Amino acid sequence: MTEHAITSTARTHVKAYWPSAQDWIAVVILACLALWLFRGHVFGDSLWIGNSDRLNSDLKILRHYLSGHGGAISAWNENEMMGYDSFALPYTFPNPLVYLISWLSPANPYVAMGFANIAMMFLAGLAAYCFLRALVPPGIASLTGAICYELSSLTLLKLSQNSMSFAVFIVIPLIMLAIRHIRRDTAALCFLALAILLACMMNFMFLQKAAYAVMLAGAYGAWRSYNEKSWQPLLIFGLALLVATGFAFPRLFNISLALGEYKRAIAGLDLKDFEVLYSFQNIHPYEILRWLDNSIFGLTPSDSHAIGNNINLTEGFLLYTSSIVPFLLLTGLVRDRFAWLNPFRSSKNEASFFFWILVICISVILVKPVAHLMFLLFMRLDFTHARILIAALLPLSLLVALSLNRFLPSPDAARGALGRDTAGLAVGIGIALLIEAVALQFTGTISFAQLSHILTQAPYLRTEALVRILLSAAVFLFFLRTALTGNSRLRQGTYMALCALLAGQCLLAANRQVNGPEAINFAQPFHWG
Questions:
Q1: Kind and range of the H or E element at 403?
Q2: What is the pTM of this model?
């Protein structure tokens, strides 16, 4: 190959991966959303301490490091996780952010930690967008999918608990992106990237979530190897995992020695017995209702008692982004059922792999035998395996982006439609605000038994959430009919309105989760724990 040909090839590769103007706009929007969501912290009005169910572990651990004991952490603390051994919290130690925060702002580390969390939230959205852009063209569909990832109820919960628990959300899309780009000419670079990402994940992050991330990435590597008829993706991922495990061996070995300390001990309950554990956790199939609205069972710990949840509100089905999303994906499944249901139909059919990963993760919560299998796989440790949804969020976001992209009119019809685009966005945001305003007029709870006798259990549902779901379903059906039967101009406006409605609901729900009265106590932020 001549020098000119090599230079031309390099320029082609750079041009293919260089962000477009739409990509830069998306990056700015993702950053602005994170800053707006935590505006109280940015402008110094409030300190976000996390959700009311579990306060921010980062702030408590930070106090240990900066308490004048030479940067050491107490081996035992009665105020941390109900008196747990601090070492038995593999998602809180070691935390490299603590040293960074103490160096950047020793006078006010809590404020610095808040800004670090805002940055991490943006990085999670950016990482997801980079992966989605590898499969979806630039535009509002890929941006909306990234917004679903960044502002989900699951990501906000983990950010409210611990930064190293949340950090897995940043790593997962990057690992998947590296696996997807494994080719003969990129093998060495992808191997290096995977080894670094996996080593960081196993050295610093919550190991249960790291295990789910490794399972997802391993399955993706195997699937791509099968479809490409090449051992390269799976082999390179396996070698990178082996190298990363070697680097993380000291931490992994010490935690394996302390496994006995991680097991919850409750008098009168044998939690090695799956039936006893399943009954105690009381996570039932009706948890799927949280996908329609994350506040459907309430927002405070006292609300969990109404449905008999013996753990908390943070250990259920936490994939909520927008009430539109479940209806959107059901529509996508009907329209693209042959592509989604058959993972071996085409080597370029990425949607099928991620659809089945989403189904498998959901089944761990909804199907008792699958939960039992996961319990055995994790050596009968009494983990709450609803946390496997950390591996389901990226597939969900991708399917959202792909489903929205299917509503996009032809490129010719979409060109020069700035007026229609702006009007569609305004309509979508307006409908999201209207649905929220109407829903807030309905407060209180209603027994599910008053609506249906299908379920033997009778959880109490918030009427506000039910109204929000019903209005969202009605608007989506109207948009669906318009998108399928309208002319090209109307379809373009409907497409933009649908994307804006979905993103708007994401933002409103996230705002409720971060800035709601149950999340912040301005007078006494650490009162009663």
A1: helix 393-406
A2: 0.88
